[in-house]
Amino acid sequence: NTPKILAFAGSTRIDSYNKRLVKIAAAGAKAAGAEVTYIDLRNLPLPLYDEDLEARDGLPANARTLKDLMISHQGLLIASPEYNSSLTAVLKNAIDWASRPAPNEPPLAAFAGKVAAIMSTSPGGLGGLRGLVHLRSILGNIKVLVLPDQVAVPNADQVFNADGSLKDPRQQESVGNLGRTVADILFKLN
Ligand code: FNR
User: Fold this and answer.
1) How many Å apart are CA 58 and CA 107, to the nearest integer?
2) Strand bridging mode 35-38 / 75-79
3) What confidence score (pLDDT) does residue 188 get?
4) Which of 27, 104, 144, 151 has its CA 20 to 30 A from that of 183?
5) Residue 127 in contact with ligand 1 by CB distance below 6 A
6) Does residue 13 have its Cβ closer than 6 Å to ligand 1?
7) What is the Cα gyration radius of the chain?
8) β-strand partners of 152
9) pLDDT band at residue 152 using 50, 70 and 90 as cut-offs
10) What is the DSSP letter of 41?
11) What is the largest CA-CA distance in the chain?
12) What are phi and psi of 150, to 5 degrees?
């Protein structure tokens, strides 16, 4: 059966560079035969995680939607902007909500055993690389298999074509390859 891969950026910004980046990886996964679902976290606003809120109301509807999407996909493509040398609060908050246990679900149902590729882009010279270090560690600790390959693209404000592709064909290929590799691994696991 066809592997399913969920793609999203850790940004709600409408013109997010990281949304552009993850769509390139998503296209690579599609070209390798996977089924890819792209979601925009702007359309799934979540309250800031609050244990009292959860105890009172359970998972908010958008957190349940996000968690169900993650459960129904075997692969993840995540483009993570860097804020103050780490991942964004938006992305960490989404991970925290989706990591919460629920009755009749195995622990870490949204994460355990998923195959993920992570990437980043930033107007800065490091391309968000420092944030990927933290994201990789977090995902590994919640049992995600994160590919050793990752891509950080510097100078985000200069490197994209109007159609969202990267001007440098080698960068375009390496980002596409992240999606291709996740798809190839999932085909082998299936
Ligand atoms: C940033 N930005 C940033 N960039 C970077 O390379 N390293 C950093 O540590 C930070 N820190 C940071 C903190 C905060 C609070 C903001 C708002 C921004 C700049 C950031 O890379 C830029 O806004 C990107 O455009 C964000 O990614 P998206 O939303 O375009 O995907």
Assistant:
1) 16
2) unpaired
3) 97
4) 104
5) no
6) yes
7) 16
8) 120
9) very high
10) G
11) 51
12) -150, 160
Q: Average pLDDT, stretch 147-170?
A: 98
Joined together, the tokens standing for residue 7 give 């793609």
Q: Give the mutation target among 122, 158, 159 for probing the ligand 1 site: most ligand atoms within 8 A of CB.
A: 122
Q: Which atom of ligand 1 is nearest to the CA of 125?
A: 6
Q: Give yes or no for residue 125 CB within 6 A of ligand 1.
A: no
If you write DSSP's letter for every residue of 137-159 in order, what string do you get?
Answer: HHHHHTT-EE-S--EEES-HHHH
Check pocket membership of 122 for ligand 1, CB cut-off 6 A. Answer: yes
Mean pLDDT of 12-36: 98
Average pLDDT over residues 115-121: 99
- Cβ neighbours of 154 (radius 10 Å): 17
Ligand 1 atom nearest the C-alpha of 126 is: 6
CA of 130 to the centre of ligand 1 (A): 12
Assess whether the C-beta atom of 82 lies below 6 angstroms from ligand 1: yes
Verify whether ligand 1 is closer than 6 Å to residue 28 (CB atom): no
Q: What is the pTM of this model?
A: 0.98
| Ligand 1 contact, 160 CB (< 6 A) | no
CATH code that applies to domain 4-189:
3.40.50.360
Instruction: Find the mean pLDDT for residues 24-33.
Output: 98
